[in-house]
Amino acid sequence: MDLDVLNMFVIAGGTLAIPILAFVASFLLWPSALIRIYYWYWRRALGMQVRYANYDDYQFCYSYRGRPGYRPSILMLHGFSAHKDMWLSIVKFLPKNLHLVCVDLPGHEGTTRSALDDYSISGQAKRIHQFVECIKLNRRPFHLVGTSMGGNVAGVYAAQYPEDICSLTLICPAGLPSTTDSKFIKQLRELQESERIDRIPLIPSTPEEMADMLKLCSYVRFKVPQQILQGLVDVRIPHNDFYRKLFLEIVDEKSRHSLHENMSKIKAPTQVIWGKQDQVLDVSGASVLASAIPDCHVYILENCGHSVVVERPRKTANLILEFLALLHSMDNNKKQA
Q1: Positive or negative CA dihedral for 287, 86, 63, 44?
Q2: Are strands 49-55 and 58-65 parallel, antiparallel or unpaired?
Q3: Is 145 domain-assigned?
Q4: What sequence ranges are listed for the domain AB hydrolase-1 (predicted)?
Q5: From 148, 167, 255, 258, the catalytic residue
Q6: What CATH number is attached to the domain comprising 277?
Q7: What is the predicted pLDDT for the residue at 117?
Q8: In a domain? residue 153
Q9: How confident is the model at residue 189 (pLDDT cuts 50, 70, 90)?
Q10: Residue 83 appears among annotated catalytic residues
Q11: Rounded to an integer, what distance in angstroms lies between the CA atom of residue 120 and that of residue 262?
């Protein structure tokens, strides 16, 4: 082989080795950094831009794509201990000309965390209303989506600020009584009886506990490498004290059944999506909502757990789009009648 050609391959190989070695080092030594890079990459790839909005001395962090148009804007509220980027798997399957807004709930990620704040469900709904007014999202009624704790907040928001929204999607929402105890509720009862309530299954502090949480939340069994589990834990550990305080707040009597107490006040067209194999919040909650909200559209997803957004992102996005299209068609028919 010609010496110049050989040198070219050596140089090329050395150039490629640098980013490869950097990636391997990040994966092995700083897996949490790799996870942050992952979210940064997907936000950029999907066209989601991060912005901040201030209400007096309170800061909200959110991401958005598109601009308000003839179709309703969509505001998405994440679940307990998650953040705005959990919606990226859904955003991937939504049209780019839709105006999407994903906000960090109070105390989460880039939104202000204060020991003096009210983290009850009604308190969080008030904060989200402040955010909506900050960015003037309610110039026109918008579609509100919430999952788990965020679904509880979304339902209470729809009941307390009906003029702001045109429609509502609740994905396995919290805040409802259930005739059947889920696996998670049974675990909580056992922890209370043994006075080990600090070991909340949704607040992992080791890779093993993280793996257990993923199994609890998902019907689909994801094979997650140990280093990624470690990275997921490393990202969460600095916030675990807050998560414990928040959890005790939202399971307190003031918030435990907030959605149930407010569901009769929800007048907007409502869609409910629930994983049939949900082990965190029992699927029977869907029928509770259907019996209280007029013309409630219920979709039960087979072979799906609590993490509907992660397990069935394409299906969830399609259901939301179909629901919005149906409402648009019904509205046009009313106008023509």
Answers
A1: negative
A2: antiparallel
A3: yes
A4: 72-313
A5: 148
A6: 3.40.50.1820
A7: 95
A8: yes
A9: confident
A10: no
A11: 14
Domain assignment of residue 227, given as a range: 47-336
Predicted pLDDT at 195: 66
Taking the alpha carbons at both ends of the chain, their separation in whole angstroms is 81
Question: What is the pLDDT, as a whole number, of residue 99?
Answer: 98
| Higher pLDDT pick, 6 / 23 | 23
Total number of domains constituting the chain: 1
Q: How confident is the model at residue 4 (pLDDT cuts 50, 70, 90)?
A: very low
The mean of the pLDDT values for the chain is: 89
148 included as an active-site residue: yes
Q: What is the pTM of this model?
A: 0.90
- Active-site hit among 278, 282, 297, 307: 278
Domain assignment of residue 31, yes or no:
no
Task: Evaluate if residue 58 carries a pLDDT over 50.
Answer: yes
User: Does 99 participate in catalysis according to the annotation?
Assistant: no
**Is-contact 227 27, C-beta < 8 A?**
yes
Average pLDDT for 107-131: 97
Can you say whether the dihedral through the CA atoms of 128, 98, 151, 261 is positive or negative? positive
CB 239 within 8 A of CB 107: no
Whether residue 3 lies inside any domain: the answer is: no
Using CA atoms, how far residue 246 sits from 203, 209, 215, 232, in Å, is: 11, 19, 22, 19
